[in-house]
Amino acid sequence: MDATPKSDVNLSEIHDLRHANALLRQRNAELEQFAYVTSHDLQEPLRKIRVFVDMLLLQELEKDRYHALDRIRSSADRMAQLIRDLLSYSRVGQEGHPFVPTDLHSVVLAALRDFDLRIEETGATVHILPLPTIDAVPLQMNQLFCNLLGNALKFRRPDTTPLLHVSAQLLGPEEVTGYPGLAQGESYYRIVVKDNGIGFNPAFTEKIFAIFQRLHQDEHFPGTGIGLAICRKIAHQHRGEIFAYGREGEGAEFHVVLPQRYRLTP
To answer: Which of 70, 91, 112 is the last residue in one of the domains?
Structure first.
């Protein structure tokens, strides 16, 4: 028999509810501030960049200078879109999850455009096989593939031309059972990003997904060590998983397993 007075239980529940509501109000206030910074403080200087670039493009310029300015304009347009997407992402907690049918092939192609100069400088070859359309948050998919592709291009061997391969496979029911964290009976795709870079020691497979953890402290590989932690968080938010496989000097593979459809209940 429960000897706890009923009134004490009710008071405890009320206290917990009030505490939760206070935290929610705090999160909403932070969200509003973040939305303001994103929509105003970031977009205004970007707008000026676009205006001045447009003014320069109206002048008579040499072909290479015009091309460079046009690239700046395209990058500014893309940044403006990312800021708008980021603003939408910041409202996820209030407006529900903005999961929409997302063409991963288009996402990867768009992400690669951010690295066109690096690809040109290194002579990298990128093979992209057909990728599926899944229910996802487009901005988060862009973040995920930008991090994976960026790492594949950054952690390259100095004496080897970078080679990237992106592919996808629909998993069968038996393959899904091999991933304990996945919902059985659902359809999943495994997207693989493979490179021929410097690779990593398999003993550190889990460490590379920890926030601010870096396996390579060399000045030739700048970064904060947060990219793969973001990738894992995004995969988990999509009710999927991400795994890394590699060997030192033999390249790396990142397997991202994502559901074809996002359901409100797991």
So the answer is: 91
